[in-house]
Amino acid sequence: MKFKRIIFSLGIVLFVSLPILIIPRLINIEKVTCRSQFGPCNIVIQEELDSINGGNLIDIREKVKNVLAKSVLVREFYIQYKIPNTLKVDLLEAKPKYAISDKNKNIILVDARGYILTSQKTSSLPTIEVDKELKKVGEQVDENTLFAGEIIYDMFSLYSIDYGKIVEDRLEIISSDDIKIIYPLVGDREVLVGSLVAIMSRLKESNEAPRIEEVKSVSEIDLRYKNPVLR
Prior knowledge:
The protein is of the alpha/beta class. It folds into two domains: 27-93, Roll (Ubiquitin-like (UB roll)); 98-230, Rossmann fold. It is built from six helices and 15 strands. The protein has helices at 2-26, 43-50, 57-70, 143-159, 189-207, 213-216; strands at residues 28-29, 31-36, 39-40, 55-56, 74-82, 86-93, 98-101, 107-110, 116-120, 127-129, 163-167, 170-174, 180-184, 220-222, 229-230. The longest helix is centred in the N-terminal third of the chain and has 25 residues, at 2-26.
């Protein structure tokens, strides 16, 4: 009697599970659609999805998943089957945060993780110039360049400074008041930026107090030291 109950239970499991396992392999996918938070997906992503040949639901879903998981252009994604023969992809695209240019004015756009999303000839993003060959799309910039990129983004947010240059072991920036600001390429970014904000605030106050000539004459702020140096 006990044996019969076991056989009966196994039969029910097979009856329920077999359609779930078999039916998806009988569904032929003919189209993969893609939408992002910006509307239509990036053309590079869409072309990769269009290159996937037709096949059953299981195989195509796996191929789409692999393409999206490997793409630096994609942060998150969700795949959904739509009757009768479509896979719908909704994704969150990576967004460029700043740009890096070389001396020949070639430009790459980088996201917050340091991944290079694309290359182009112009950009309205805050930019740092480097004196070396740029890396390729899909690669990640080194830690020093990433640090400098985050600094220039902060400077743009705070003071609308949109350009800086990496010179050897430092990042050099010129403020709207023609003050050279020098940052190290490593350290506590929040502390460094906070120090500059405090110094700039003091300089602004000095402009309203003409008697403080020693502060007003500052032309360079060097943040590479524990105690920032004003020259």
